[in-house]
Amino acid sequence: MQRGKKRLNELLLDYNLIKEQDVLRALDLQRKKGGQLATILIEENFVKEEDIVNCFCRYMDVPPLALHKFKGTEQVVKIIPEHVARHYRLLCVSQLGNMLTVAMSDPLNVLAIDDIKALTGYDVIPVVAALSDITKTIDRYYHHKEDAQKEKQSFDDLVKEVSEEDIEFVKAQDQIDIGEVIRSSSEAPIVKMIDALIAEALIKRASDIHIEPYEDRIRVRYRIDGALGEAASLPKKIQNAVTARLKIMSNLDITQRLVPQDGRFKVKLEEKEVDFRVSVLPISFGEKVVMRALDKANLSIGLEALGFLPQAMEGFQYAVTRPYGMILVTGPTGSGKSTTLYSVLNKLNTPDRNIITIEDPVEYQVAGITQVQVKPDIGLTFSAGLRSILRQNPDVLMVGEIRDFETGDIAIKAALTGALLLSTLHTNDAPGAVTRLIDMGIEPFLIASSVIAVAAQRLARRICPDCKEAYKIPQSVLDRLDLELDASKLTVYRGKGCDKCGKTGYRGRFALLEVMVVNDNIREMIMKRASSDEIKRYARKEQKMFTLRDTGITNFLNGKTTLEEVLRVTSKE
């Protein structure tokens, strides 16, 4: 088998199954919007799916695998994690000794094969299957429809209470009777359904609720432990009433349907108050509503309970106790930066301190802290607001994000004049924050003088304690990851999947933290405009800094998370 020597587009041309201009158009589309070439070719009707399957089969001299007849075991299928299977469009169909037989929509994808080897420790035998068959089979094995049906039952019962007589709906979007919508949104079935939706989301620990209108239905999804999953499908006829009910709860203008709106509301469930931040966005088939749950209980648990390793916590605690200077937390959206910063503010929130924040938007509303909401439309930007705040004699400042030179410059000068300033940046690691500030145009000597510490953060899913099981990891996997460990002496853990974790094997998340404390040597490197790689090498060697990958691997070996999760949220050093 000559695997890897030719690509799909070359094979299709060799076998006269496509025109060259169509190949060029497909490759151009792939460059613009990403995705697999095979998917683009099929969607654009350049070739039929069966042509692609036959093309691979002829080249590899193997018969196609009919997955619609496939009856395998979940244990074998799930040797390959779901996110890998969906990303590469493949499915593990059998395991014999150290060999996995894997059905692939693109069996010449060497990168996919190498990733499976690294993750599982098995050698891979690729076989050919149709893309549509693989997608359907992945859904069949990785999603438990019986459980999903049980989860949706409460919603189905509620939706049945809403009859045609209860609510009158106007099909034309520009002729909605606002009075009728307000009336219908206050009807008992709609109110009861929204309350049930929010209550179920909180019980399931969802961080976000997505209500998304489509042409023929409304899809409801929950984000649990960072992953979105479908929770319910509601009838299209109640769309306007549902949206109006949520807008009324959030003090938004129900007559405005063509502009985005932001609001918030508060609920109480089992003696616990939870704030919801609401975003309404006009889309093709109505208005999409996303509600983010902001649980204040997360702020009072303390930094120690966020899951930081002792090595990272020591450096971070040192920075927090300093009277002035700048502390930066970096990471992508949704990596827990705000929760970490608010936990710091909660710790510093004493009567003898004047704490002021400027945010976009205000995430948590905390008693004893002055919080300012950015409003660019009236000129209240981060930089303008920060200038005014400095005249309020603050002891501690939090700036939601340093986005430009002006905000960064004012923030650094505030840190130099006696305030402890906390803020966030979007960089991949802790040393990268220094070069990011320099790229904004801030002078290195100002950065060196003001920055106390930089922390890079990610959130990793925790193994479900109810279905946690031990297993032996192959030595070859450790070797590929350059881990000098003896697999025979290691016992590691994974989640088998149970009802309590929704069959995912994970329940809850914790923070991975990479902390770089700025000492005299690092200040000198900053002054000399050293690269982030040079600073990182120094911090690892001299400060014994644990990187995000180091922290992830340590938590994997401690049985807190899985190797797959560590590889998902951290990058190779």
List keywords for this structure.
single chain, 573 residues, alpha/beta, seven-stranded mixed β-sheet, globular
Chain-wise SSE layout:
Blueprint: H1 8-14, H2 20-33, H3 37-43, H4 49-60, H5 74-77, H6 82-88, E1 90-96, E2 99-104, H7 110-120, E3 123-128, H8 131-142, H9 145-160, H10 178-185, H11 188-203, E4 206-213, E5 217-224, E6 227-235, H12 239-249, E7 261-269, E8 272-283, E9 286-295, H13 310-320, E10 325-330, H14 337-348, E11 355-359, E12 370-373, H15 382-390, E13 396-399, H16 405-416, E14 420-425, H17 432-440, H18 444-450, E15 451-463, E16 468-471, H19 475-480, E17 492-495, E18 506-517, H20 520-527, H21 532-542, H22 548-557, H23 563-569
Parallel strand pairs: 2-3, 10-14, 10-15, 11-12, 11-13, 13-14
Antiparallel strand pairs: 1-2, 4-5, 4-9, 5-6, 7-8, 8-9, 15-18, 16-17
Helix pairs in contact: 9-11, 10-12, 15-16, 16-18, 18-20, 22-23
Overall description:
The protein has 23 helices and 18 strands. The strands form four sheets. A seven-stranded mixed beta sheet has the order 12-11-13-14-10-15-18, sandwiched between helices. A six-stranded antiparallel beta sheet has the order 6-5-4-9-8-7. Strands 1-2-3 form a three-stranded mixed beta sheet. The protein is globular. It is an alpha/beta fold and about 575 residues long. The protein is about 40% helix and about 25% strand.
Number of helical segments with 4 or more residues: 23
Strand order of the largest sheet: 12-11-13-14-10-15-18
**Total number of β-strand segments?**
18
Q: Radius of gyration in whole Å, from Cα?
A: 27 Å
In the predicted model, the low-confidence regions spanning at least 5 consecutive residues are: 163-176
The secondary-structure class comes to alpha/beta
What fraction strand?
15-25%
| First-last Cα distance | 34 Å
Q: What's the average pLDDT? A: 83
Q: What fraction, in percent, of the residue positions are helical? A: 25-40%
* Biggest sheet statistics: 7 strands, mixed
The rough form would be described as: globular
